[in-house]
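Fold Annotation — chain and its backbone

Fields — amino acid sequence, structure tokens

___
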Amino acid sequence: MKTGNLFKILLLIIFAAIFVACESRGKDGDWESMKWETNVSNINKNKIEVPNKGGVYVFKCTNYKSFWIYALSENGEYLSISYEDKKIEREWYSIKIDDESIMTVSILSNSSDDNRTLEIGIQAEDVFDSFLFEQNKN
């Protein structure tokens, strides 16, 4: 076999490998939805009814190695956050994301005269998900 033909075959193999590697990643918008394991029993379409006494909610993403919070809304008001925030502590709740793809949300008891909502927007790669926590007033 001539050196020129061997070079062409080798070049063809390299291009085929690059094409297959790019195609296996998926096209934009073709990412798998985030899958969760959780201790939450009363979840309905990512909406969680938090009892007045509060609670601790644990979510483990089973199909992405890491994720971050891209949006946070407290009582309908969007808050400024950084995607690098692994721990967020506010007056009546805290959110912690650890290196094991686990998010822990702790909500304190509601002794106020107002209902409270907390919405957490989650992102992994080009996939988005969210959780809405609703807690009734005292």
Q: What stands out?
A: The domain at 36-135 is CATH 2.60.40.10 (Immunoglobulin-like).
